[in-house]
Amino acid sequence: MTIRVLIADDQAMVREAFAILLNAQTDIEVVGEAVDGLDAVAKVEQLRPDVVLMDVRMPGLDGLEATRRVNARTKVLVLTTFDLDEYVYEALRSGASGFLLKKASARELSEAVRVVAGGDALLAPSVTRRLIGAFARLAPPRPFTGDAYGPLTQRETEILTLIARGLSNTEIADHLVIAEQTVKSHVSNILTKLALRDRTQAAVYAYETGLVTPYCGARSDNPPAAP
Q1: pLDDT, tens digit, for every residue of 57-107?
Q2: Do the beta carbons of residue 196 and residue 205 sit within 8 Å?
Q3: Angle at the Cα of 217 (from 199 to 64), degrees rounded to 5?
Q4: Collapsing DSSP states into helix, strand and coil, what is residue 52?
Q5: Of the candidates 131, 126, 54, which has an alpha carbon nearest to the alpha carbon of residue 96?
Q6: pTM, 2 dp
Q7: Fold of 3-119
Q8: Do residues 222 and 212 make contact, with C-beta atoms less than 8 angstroms apart?
């Protein structure tokens, strides 16, 4: 199945370059371009893309607000740079499904689109760990309360902490010595029980509720995982 992509960026050269790179992929099609946030919202409604590449800094309606308005209808992959820490964290809270550095290679660009379109949400763990860890500290601190995780089993709580650390399903399976399909089932249960859309929201939830802290990782007072 072809992945339909909308590119939202106020720089024509960026839009054109990304369009050329993505259209060269046999499984990806750029169905439209948007010049700002308002245009992106309108084009999402009109074109129904599977993924939006959303720049943060755009005139008029910025990428953050545009992401809030469209994330219920499509997946958003935010275009960013490492010097925009506060924007990346806010993008997570706004419902973005992943990140892409503007200096990414053609392979990284196409793979990021596939990952987000497939519902896995987070990008390569090497990027995710740095982003989540760096930006989560910008969240207002909240005291940890076990009540937030009442619906989860001990194993699901442990897997949630590993998601927040940026581990992939394969890495979680290796870490816990369980089957990858078992991990996928646990992740699905976590999202359902906590009414979260994807792994990105799960990671933010873990940080914002105090289960995981940016510098210390998972809290030491968490119960041990069930076998």
Answers
A1: 888 898 989 999 998 899 999 887 655 556 666 777 788 887 777 888 888
A2: yes
A3: 45
A4: strand
A5: 54
A6: 0.69
A7: Rossmann fold (3.40.50)
A8: no
SS3 content of the chain, % helix, strand, coil (to 5): 50, 15, 35
* Residue showing tokens 């379109």: 117
Distance in angstroms (rounded) separating the CA atoms of residues 73 and 42: 12
Residue 37 amino acid letter? G
CATH topology of domain 141-218: Arc Repressor Mutant, subunit A (1.10.10)
Q: For residue 177, what is the DSSP state?
A: T
Torsion of CA 134, 139, 145, 146, to 10 degrees: -50
Q: Would you say the C-alpha torsion 106, 119, 1, 54 has a positive or negative sign? A: negative
Structure tokens at 18: 């990304």
Domain boundaries, the chain: 3-119, 141-218
